[in-house]
């Protein structure tokens, strides 16, 4: 069991919070610079989250500030700790990797704060780091044990062959993945994601998260990927290079965003664009396992050209009988017909949800682009939806969403 931090350590860490608020991004930039000098550590990260925007740099800086401010009340950080633990399982980060981060972080604090980073301050932050690291490592052991004890579970990277490649819309393609070893696959929780190791020819290896877009079945996974024209090319590699029969490597399903095993309230599934992927998984799970559950699936996309998996979702909803499906098009094409191809025009709003769904009695699940999530995570809370009923998935650093 982790020994509690001493009052002296807590006081020193809390005293550094103002300095972190002022210099946090400089510290985390320096930390990653040191960390990425070690090749096998650099390979653990999704470098799409580093980028020119420095999203991960800002996210970690926000996390350090929150840790310093809440070090006496770590319960406030429990959701963040849970999300990090799942990410570590997904990226196959192991206990032996933690010392590298400790060394890089403490050296970066010293580099940036200079004389203010006294030996006492560095010792306190070292103790605080390992205190939190021990909490994370203990949780990660539990998560990995649960995975390994379940049928079809595995640890590390497992090889899956692309059994089918299906064009769902002008921008989204699905991949049906079956294990090369022929064994069963872990039944994921509807909403979770897979982490892939992609190897484009002549380029550095890429790590990418993609939501599972099918319900749990024990036999295969489906991911549905939007082809992005910018970025480092993970989606373009899948769309343009990967074909049926090719093999991809992935770690087990992970993520703290998932449909409850026994939902106690109605659910509202709200997605924008390719954010539909975990929602389709949830709709499949509801149709198969929760015959009496009231569910409302609300999706926003540009038009019928970008609208994926609509017929599949509506077939599931019709068979279930208690799932409603509503789609908004922001820029319908001339041949799109209101009431046929889509149900509303413009954008989904919190006001619309309040008028047409049991918003204040339901659990709300969200997935979509960053502006979409930023708007709804804060908008739903401001509308009076309890924060413990607002669940969202966001790939990449979510510091802005947490702040909202």
Task: Describe the structure in your own words.
This protein is α/β, with parallel strands linked by helices and 404 residues long. It has 3 domains: 143 residues, Globin-like (Orthogonal Bundle); 93 residues, Beta Barrel (Elongation Factor Tu (Ef-tu), domain 3); 137 residues, Nucleotide-binding domain of ferredoxin-NADP reductase (FNR) module (Rossmann fold, 3-Layer(aba) Sandwich). Helix content is 41%, strand content 18%. It contains 13 helices and 12 strands. It has a 6-stranded antiparallel beta sheet, covered by helices on one side. α1 packs across α7, α6 runs antiparallel to α7 and α9 runs parallel beside α10. The relative contact order is 0.10. The C terminus is likely disordered.
* Total tally of structural domains: 3
CATH architectural designation of the largest domain = Orthogonal Bundle
Mean pLDDT value: 91
Q: What gyration radius follows from the Cα positions, in whole Å?
A: 22 Å
Give the CATH topology of the largest domain.
Globin-like
The count of DSSP E runs of length 2 or more, i.e. the number of strands, is 12
**What are the segments in which pLDDT stays under 50 over at least 5 consecutive residues?**
397-404
What profile does the largest beta sheet have?
Answer: 6 strands, antiparallel
Question: How would the blueprint of this fold be written?
Answer:
Layout lengths: L6 H9 L1 H19 L3 H4 L12 H15 L8 H13 L7 H16 L5 H31 L8 E10 L4 E8 L13 E6 L7 E6 L9 E6 L7 H7 L6 E4 L16 E6 L3 H14 L5 E7 L8 H11 L2 E7 L14 E2 L4 H7 L6 E5 L2 H13 L7 E4 L5 H5 L1
Parallel strand pairs: 7-8, 7-11, 8-9, 9-10, 11-12
Antiparallel strand pairs: 1-2, 1-6, 2-5, 3-4, 3-6
């Amino acid at each position: 069991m982790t020994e509690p931090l001493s009052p002296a350590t807590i006081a020193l860490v809390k005293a550094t919070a103002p300095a972190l608020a002022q210099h946090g991004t400089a510290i985390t930039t320096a930390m990653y610079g040191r960390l990425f000098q070690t090749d096998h550590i650099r390979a653990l990260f999704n470098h799409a989250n580093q980028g020119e925007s420095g999203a991960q740099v800002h996210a970690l800086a926000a996390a350090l500030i929150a840790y310093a401010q809440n070090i006496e009340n770590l319960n406030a950080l429990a959701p963040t700790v849970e999300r990090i633990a799942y990410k570590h399982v997904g990226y196959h980060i192991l206990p032996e990797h933690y010392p590298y981060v400790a060394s890089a972080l403490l050296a970066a604090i010293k580099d940036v704060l200079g004389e203010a980073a006294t030996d006492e301050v560095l010792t306190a932050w070292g103790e605080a780091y390992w205190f939190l690291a021990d909490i994370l490592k203990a949780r990660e052991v539990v998560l990995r044990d649960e995975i390994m004890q379940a049928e079809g579970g595995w640890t590390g990277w497992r090889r899956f062959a692309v059994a089918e490649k299906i064009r769902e819309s002008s921008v989204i393609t699905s991949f049906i993945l079956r294990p090369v070893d022929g064994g069963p696959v872990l039944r994921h929780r509807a909403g979770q994601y897979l982490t892939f190791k992609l190897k484009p020819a002549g380029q550095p290896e890429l790590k990418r998260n993609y939501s599972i877009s099918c319900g749990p079945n024990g036999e295969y996974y489906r991911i549905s990927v939007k082809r992005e024209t910018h970025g480092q090319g993970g989606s373009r590699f899948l769309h343009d290079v990967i074909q049926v029969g090719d093999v991809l490597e992935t770690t087990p399903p992970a993520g703290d965003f998932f449909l409850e095993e026994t939902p106690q309230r109605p659910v509202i599934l709200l997605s924008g664009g390719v954010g539909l992927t975990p929602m389709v998984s949830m709709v499949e799970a509801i149709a198969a396992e929760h015959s009496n559950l009231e569910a409302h699936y609300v999706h926003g996309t540009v038009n019928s050209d970008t609208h994926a998996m609509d017929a599949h979702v509506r077939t599931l909803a019709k068979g279930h009988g208690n799932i409603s499906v509503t789609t908004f098009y922001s820029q319908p094409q001339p041949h799109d017909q209101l009431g046929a191809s889509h149900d509303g025009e413009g954008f989904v709003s919190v006001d619309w949800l309040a008028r047409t769904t049991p918003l204040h009695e339901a659990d709300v699940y969200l997935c979509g682009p960053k502006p979409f999530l930023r708007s709804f995570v804060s908008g739903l809370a401001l509308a009076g939806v309890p924060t413990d009923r607002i669940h969202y998935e966001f790939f990449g650093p979510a510091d802005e969403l947490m702040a909202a």
